[in-house]
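Note to self: the last two entries modelled the partners one at a time, which told us nothing about the interface. This time every component goes in together.
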Amino acid sequence: MISGDQAMKYFYVGIGVALILTVLAVLFVPGVDDQVELIFQRYLGRAAS
Amino acid sequence: MKIFARIVIILVCLAAIPVTAVATAAFKQRFADGPNRVFSGGPLEAGELYSGPEPDWSFVNAIPTIEMQLLNPTTSRRIWTVEYDNRLFVWSGYMNSFVGRLWKSWPGQAEDDGRAILRIDGVRYERELQRIHSDPDLAGITAAISDKYPSRTSPATVESGDIWLFEAAPR
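The predicted structure of the combined assembly is written out below.
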């Protein structure tokens, strides 16, 4: 059984890895940047309407 | 209290993932040849540079958006446009609001240096953006805008400065 502090430590590591993978995917995987922009545009449209 | 703080931290960390994705996509677009959807792009490089007599601009009324780049700074964006009496216009709304002024920097930049490149259907046109505060054709221009787009543009909104209207004149 891991402690709460230990669990948070693992969580931070997981988030760090997720952020790095997110940046790499948007920069280098074809089409990911366009999908991100498309989703952002939809949210903008909803917020503006 | 500690549990509450941890929940907040977890939510902030999870929110950081989509925020990072959006910020990275916006950053990447700055190095691209032109804008994509909403993020500003880099300089417009591809496409023939038009030279010759003033075109018949009426064709732009069938085009939803065009790409526009200022020369200073050289960022580009996708923008609405309309033709009226063979004059070409672009504009920016919400300019009297704090959010509008914060969000839209290009109108102020264009007022300082109006040199611009428009890319329409893959052809680049060198133009000079000239802000219009009042014009004999203003009623017709704003009616053309409202006919083409879901916009409540009127001579009053232009004259009050809520909408900054620019003519993309020959350079």
